[in-house]
Amino acid sequence: AHDNAPVLARLNLVFDWAESLSTDAKAKEASRESAIRLLGRRDTKQDEDLKTLGGLLDPAVSLRLQKAALAGLRRNRTAKVPELVISHWPTMSPSLRQASMELLLSREEWTKQLLAEMQKGSLNKNQLPLANRQLLLKSGNKEIQELAQAIWKSDSSDRAGVIKKYRAALALTGDRLKGRAIWSKNCVVCHNFHGEGATVGPSLTPLTDKTPEDFLVAILDPNDAVEPRFTAYNIETKDGRSITGIMKTETGTTMTVALAGGNTETILRSDVQEIRASGRSLMPEGLEQSMTPQDLADLIAYLKSAN
User: Fold this and answer.
1) Which of 200, 218, 199 has the alpha carbon at shortest distance from 299?
2) Using CB atoms within 10 A of its CB, is residue 42 exposed (0-12), middle (13-18) or buried (19+)?
3) What separation in angstroms does the CA of 255 have from each of 201, 230, 235, 246, 261?
4) What is the H or E stretch that residue 65 is in?
5) Does this model's pTM top 0.85?
6) CA distance 216 to 220
7) What pLDDT digit, counting tens, does each position of 135-191 carry?
């Protein structure tokens, strides 16, 4: 048998170098990013690397390096990861919070910890996007579903009743400018309209000829009619992650999924444990919880404007 000691010694030197370089504020950002990618790959130094990766979530560190640190944390499967991420939550920027939420929702045990913090009130429950809340309320994991229901007592199940209540919006005069502000707050992360927004859901630019009634139903009951290409898929990976989104592109070896927040994730087919269509839209029910009938009238007026 070959003596592996010299090889292991050289590898350890590389890992030690990576640990030192990753926290060197004077080093080039690209070099630090490469070093960060090596952290968390040594079984014997998991705790030290977790501490280093956690330290890199400091707001003084560039967003690029913070995101590299989050990617490193994602590889670790322990309960220490959500604790670390949640402890840095108060100082995180909005884009890092989105990436952190995706990390915390990627493993069921981590999701439970996130929900436990929200139930305690140490994390604001409204910081979780509505689309993610909807998925948790319908989770196949009974414990997660019950936790989510305890936090967000869903009153959005009776869609017909909600539509009836908000039909008054159709008789109101909408303000396009105010409607644009509502669009920017609620819709822009998933939909594109006149060149602005994301392409997770269908573009709304060709739909200006739709009736106000059509818009009312589509906004308040997104599952009334779901185009097959905009059906949400649930993907379970072999390393225990759970990803939900719209299938954007597929190759022979990969699948690229658009997530609810507007980000995308590419998954190797060889890493997929299970894939299933949810039969539902990624667009959440319950948008009316943050809108008055006048707000809805304003939004519809904006969506019907030609430019």
Assistant:
1) 218
2) middle
3) 17, 15, 10, 10, 18
4) helix 63-75
5) no
6) 6
7) 898 888 999 999 999 998 755 557 888 999 999 999 999 999 999 999 999 899 899
